[in-house]
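COURSE: Structural Biology Practicum
ASSIGNMENT: Worksheet 4, Part C
STUDENT ID: 0417
INSTRUCTIONS: Below are two proteins. For each, the amino acid sequence is given first, followed by its structure token string. Answer the questions at the end about the second protein only.

PROTEIN I
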Amino acid sequence: MTVNQQIEHWLTAHKHAKASKNRPFVTLSYAQSWDGSITTRAGESLALSGNKATQLTHQLRSLHDGILVGIGTVLTDDPQLTVREWPGANPQPIVLDSRLRMPPTARLCQHPDQNCWVLTSLADDSEFGSQVEIITLAGDADGRVNLANALNLLWKKGITMLMVEGGSQVITAFLKAQLADALVLTIAPTLVGGYKGVGNLGLSSKLQLPQIRPLNTQMLGDDLIMWGNLQYQELVEL
């Protein structure tokens, strides 16, 4: 099988794996350089994936009910989050935006067939029009949207498979909360020396670090694709 077929078969097998947890199955997917950078510095955009890896990203989008990014990605990249390079339906676009900084001019506010869901911890006092649905959730200790509560709400709204594309703070938050189930990582053959895709997870022991098992790797064009299930150790409070 091709790498595209392998990953589709693997994800399809997981479709109902988390049904008993009342939350979507969460796939992290992003591109980085060989040194782990996703861009040169925070707030700047850098396209790393080759054409075939970009097609894989769009295929992954078509295999998920929803696709989530943080507000930082919206402000930096102004993404569409649609399926354009692969046959399939567009997933539900979702933005984590605790302070409600979503610009009404963002392309996600003019999505071709879906109202964008904006998850925030602030009361809705903005005007976005009919193509944006503001969803207010209780914030955590830092005022950010509580991810566990957000996933439960998304599950109730029909999202069973969720793709998380970034940025770094969102990827790190899902890993820290142990709420990411799988990883599809594109590694471009370049060195950037810049802003990393995964930040500080706040773990002091190697035994507590998330593991990717089983780990699968295959070249796709010039890029290396790595994918597998994320495994976590139980965190013990001292």
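PROTEIN II
(use this one for the questions)
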Amino acid sequence: MNESTTRAPHEEERSALDELRQEPGSRSQFLKMVGGVGAAGALSVLIAACGGDDEEPSSSSSSSSKPSGGGASKQDLEIVNYALTLEYLEADFYQQVLDSGEVKDKKVAEIAMEISENEQEHVAALTATVEKLGGKPATKPTTNFESVLAGGEKKILTTAASVENLGAAAYLGQAGRIKNMEVLAAALSIHTVEARHAAVLNAAIGKSIVPDGAFAKPAAMPEVLRMVKPFIKS
């Protein structure tokens, strides 16, 4: 992961995905970081889906892909804290679902428990990533899931599926903007798990496990924040 400090300014502006597209050596190192050849398919999908970037790059992107422990650009830290906020919401949602006792089906309850544990681990991992990169983790929001819980098991499952599909799309939507390789590795590893959660929950409510077809569709940050706003009190 060590990079030369003599790169030209135009090279420093490249996203991590741009570097992976253009440099086989970087690709090889990256795949080892995220789990070897098993991650190759997911990386290919990310590269295909993120061929264009429809969000404006931050003016702070010149600190781009730095080595392990060397910090990250302001934009990368913003992206990780955005992801952390979404994971806070998901983790809190599943904990409230489990505490409510509204899920009566044993198999569904087991799925909710496993996903809840995954989301808690995502929170811990993203918090550690922000701190390692020299930033301050986002504040955990106060959530509002009362109406979902009041709707019973069917409403809970439908909401869970929507949230997981949105989460997967949110990670995909930021992949092309990330400058730091370690941040991209974290995003890729969590994105694939969110997509698996979504597939299981889609099946549980009778939807296709691949609602977007063969290639997932990304969602931009403003769209995602607008959709989760009803679940945030403060």
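ANSWER KEY EXCERPT:
Q1: Confidence is low (pLDDT under 50) at residues 1-12, 36-49, 51-71.
Q2: The chain has ten helices and no strands.
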